[in-house]
Design brief:
single chain, 129 residues, mainly beta, four-stranded antiparallel sheet, 11 strands, 0% helix
């Protein structure tokens, strides 16, 4: 699986952006797609995750209520809709995929970067105050 993230840019505080993550090679039932973000000198931070079969999602507290993850199964593309953006949301955003997850598994268990196998190259999001 190869992942291509896009959609980043410069936006004012309070604005919105939608990131996309296109997967080549196919994503199937049993896969998870997650979003992480990273700023210089800091560890990669979990943003949220979606189960590829069904609509289950799980978000970090810092983005809950502002960010929404969705997907287009037919086009193997995931999305991160970011609303009410804050300067502290400025980061490089990465999408990641993991396979082999049981449908009964708890998504909160998959908030660590090490649990993901495939990563996109990242897209820069800058929020100005």
């Amino acid at each position: 699986v190869q992942l291509q993230a896009s959609g980043g840019g410069l936006v004012q505080a309070g604005g919105s952006l939608r990131l996309s993550c296109a997967a080549s090679g196919g994503i199937f039932s049993g896969y998870l797609m997650a979003w992480f973000r990273q700023t210089p000198g800091k560890e990669r931070e979990f943003v949220g995750v979606i189960r590829w079969s069904g609509e289950n999602t799980y978000y970090a507290d810092s983005v809950k209520g502002r960010f929404t993850i969705s997907k287009d199964n037919a086009n193997n593309t995931g999305y991160l809709q970011m609303n009410s953006l804050k300067p502290e949301d400025t980061a490089v955003y990465h999408c990641a995929v993991r396979w082999g997850v049981a449908t009964t598994s708890v998504l909160s268990m998959y908030s660590q970067p090490g649990r993901y196998t495939y990563w996109g190259q990242g897209t820069q999001v800058t929020v100005s105050s």
